Amino acid sequence: MEKNHLSGTSGDDMMQVIDAHIHLDMYTNAQQQQLLQELDEHHTEALVAVSNHLSSAKQTWKLAQVDKRIRPAFGYHPEQQLPTTEELNELLRFMEQHHTDMNAVGEVGLPYYMRKEDPTISIEPYMELLETMFIHAVNWNKPVVLHAIYEDAPVVCELLEKHSIRQAHFHWFKGDESTVQWIVGNGYMLSVTPDCLYESEIQRLIQQVPLTSLMVETDGPWPFEGPFHGMMTHPRMIHASVAKIAELKRLPIDSVYHHLFANTKDFYQL
User: Fold this and answer.
1) 70-74 and 104-109: which strand pairing?
2) Which residues contact 244 (CB under 8 A, 6 or more apart)?
3) Residue 12: per-residue pLDDT
4) Residue 122 · residue 82 · CB < 8 Å
5) Which residues contact 256 (CB under 8 A, 6 or more apart)?
6) Is the pLDDT of residue 14 over 80?
7) What's the pLDDT score for residue 1?
8) CA–CA gap between residue 89 and residue 160 (Å, rounded)
């Protein structure tokens, strides 16, 4: 049965959250059902569900047809072998066919971790792929969801400026303060995961980034440590992230909920 469209923002909705980045298709069917059944209980209004490749995009699209709280993004994750020309064309055809259904192009970016393990991997073909995705995002008037961290982030900022992209979301961002200032100055968004409860690097980032530029996510099913060790990654964890952000910024928690929710809703046109 199809769920109703997103609700308003009264009453308990002051504690409403949106998971700005989750790989819903990577959960088992049983986990997907559990997670979706528990969204209302944990005041989660929507999930921005990103894709890794064509089959991932197809699965995400099917999930979004059943439950309108799932807002799909289609793209090609950079931390994998490059697609063949045929594979890329098939993905782009699917995205063209369903671009009115998708809320963003993503997850796209550059392969930081692969290149860290194997420095012989060339970044240029991945940059070409990313530019292809940017060109289509501009044509479809969609925001982009980015995997771009550390020294890759300034490279991606230059490409965003080259293509005059204003709507960019750097998910689970990690990088230096000057890059943070560049991202914020261009009006792009950054998001943090539940590791903000125990990672000092992310806590420093939260203190650097204005609340108006922040979103919260899980990147599920990626697992977390600290108080979440051994748990299935779930949007309910976002409430702990919101509390940590409020603590670090010394702001009232209801104000933090309001801004994070409004930021995500506005960015993704939910």
Assistant:
1) parallel
2) 196, 197, 203, 206
3) 57
4) no
5) 211, 242, 245, 246, 249
6) no
7) 33
8) 22
Whole-prediction pTM value?
Answer: 0.94
Residue 49, token pair as written in the block: 């569900």
| C-alpha triplet 31, 220, 42: angle, nearest 5° | 70
Cβ-contact 63, 39 below 8 angstroms? no
% of the chain at pLDDT higher than 70: 95
pLDDT at 5: 34
Residue type, 48: V
| Backbone φ/ψ region at 233: left (φ over 0), alpha (ψ -120 to 50), beta | beta
Number of H helices, E strands in the chain: 10, 8
H or E element at residue 146? strand 144-147
Structure tokens at 256: 């933090």
Answer for the pair 110, 132: CB distance below 8 angstroms, yes or no: no
Alpha-carbon distance 110 to 270, whole Å?
Answer: 27
Over range 13-41, report the average pLDDT: 95
